[in-house]
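Here we describe the complex-level prediction in full. Unlike the single-chain runs in Section 2.1, the two entities below were treated as one system.
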Amino acid sequence: MRKPFGGVVLDSAFRVIVPFTIIYGIYVLTHGEFSPGGGFQAGALLAVGVVLARLVQGENAKFNIKGTHAVMLAGLGAFLYAFTGILPMFFGGNFLEYSYLPVHLHETAEIHAFGILMIEIGVTLTVMMTIIDIMDVLVKKGDSDE
Amino acid sequence: MQILILEAVLLLFLIGTTIAIILCRDLLASIVMFSVFSFCAVLSYFMMGAPDVAFTEAVISTISTIFMVAALKKVSRWCKK
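The structure predicted for the assembly as a whole is:
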């Protein structure tokens, strides 16, 4: 929202809630191989904090990411995914074949975990920044607004 | 047997909230009923043994409710007389 509608209670609750949602989002991202979760849910959870800041503190919120920056970062996430996918093709593998990643780790399982983590980070960044950008477009000052 | 009854009650809730969404004339009430529908869907996904889908639905329903209310403020047609 452009104008803040938060009072003292909403502002304090926002300051308490947001660190927990960010920690939980990072936990869901890094622990996604063994438990329910993954890149998509982690990105949505991380975006909730920024959307909440935008709702409670208005357009001049400190904890905010602008729409143009959000689009660029979403492109960076998609690039990370494509880079991790195409990199094994230069070393004799197929698309997304993690065993051929040029990383100096001892076991194949560790290289697999590293590749999956890079993919998940790319998906997380793209989903989070896309949600923030949709929110930015929806609450932007428009022609028909008031 | 109790599980079956609980699933049947959840499915009845899903059908009831869907009919309420269609019949509501107030758009804000329709969005709130959609949120209720999403919560019933989360519970039924849990009952069917898919916690991953339930987690996704819970997160996305929260964000989509915020999006729909923001879009409704932009449309500024709260209720059709």
